[in-house]
């Protein structure tokens, strides 16, 4: 029986994916988010860039008005589509979204709704291409530091911030670091060579990848 740690609290159905394999599971929230009301735009926006489910939920809750939305992540897009927003572009990663914006939307202006700890991928690409945009840091990411005395066979990571939070207080490197996407994996590779990426950017896919690794070790 292997020991698996999730740096995000799982739903009951997600938890059962692990427990049904007889591996043990420990879970905690390595990060949390805090809304910044003063940064939420008060006017209608023509082109919005939204790269996280957290940002999408804030926009929906505050009933922000967008003509067009450009998204990173299918689940982020689904939240917005189900809320009635006009999502015109969905990309798996920010770097792909940036490339398309530069190539096909260079005459447009954009508003990026994101975290105060956002990565520089999209702002850097738009700035280099001379595309006008404005950032709205509508939430912040807060680390929750928790140290573990036991060694884990695998740890699930869901964001670069989660990776940073975990390794800030844990020096023992797990056998496998399993990440939800390439961006998170790049952060994890600073701490281990044994980094694996889920097939899709979903928690379930991340769990499945970890179980496969643990079953074969």
From TrEMBL:
KW Nucleotide-binding (keyword) present: no
GO biological process: protoporphyrinogen IX biosynthetic process; uroporphyrinogen III biosynthetic process
Domain Tetrapyrrole biosynthesis uroporphyrinogen III synthase positions: 44-207
Pfam families: HEM4
E.C. no: 4.2.1.75
Family, similarity comment: Belongs to the uroporphyrinogen-III synthase family.
Protein name: Uroporphyrinogen-III synthase
Gene source species: Psychroflexus salarius
């Amino acid at each position: 029986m292997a020991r698996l740690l999730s740096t995000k609290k799982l739903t009951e159905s997600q938890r059962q994916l692990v427990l049904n394999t007889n591996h043990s599971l420990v879970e905690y929230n390595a990060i949390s988010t805090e809304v910044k009301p003063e940064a939420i735009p008060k006017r209608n926006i023509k082109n919005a860039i939204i790269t996280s489910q957290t940002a999408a939920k804030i926009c929906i809750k505050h009933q922000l008005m967008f003509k067009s939305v450009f998204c990173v992540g299918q689940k982020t897009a689904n939240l917005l589509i189900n809320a009635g927003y006009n999502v015109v572009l969905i990309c798996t990663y920010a770097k792909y979204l940036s490339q398309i914006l530069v190539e096909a939307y260079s005459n447009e202006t954009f508003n990026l709704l994101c975290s105060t700890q956002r990565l520089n991928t999209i702002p850097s690409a738009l700035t280099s291409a001379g595309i006008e945009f404005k950032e709205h840091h509508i939430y912040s990411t807060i680390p929750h530091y928790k140290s573990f005395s036991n060694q884990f066979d695998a740890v699930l990571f869901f964001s670069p911030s989660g990776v940073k939070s975990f390794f800030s207080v844990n020096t023992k490197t797990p056998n496998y670091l399993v990440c939800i996407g390439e961006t998170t994996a790049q952060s994890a590779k600073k701490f281990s060579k044994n980094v694996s990426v889920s097939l899709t950017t979903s928690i379930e896919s991340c769990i499945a990848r970890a179980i496969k690794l643990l079953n074969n070790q």
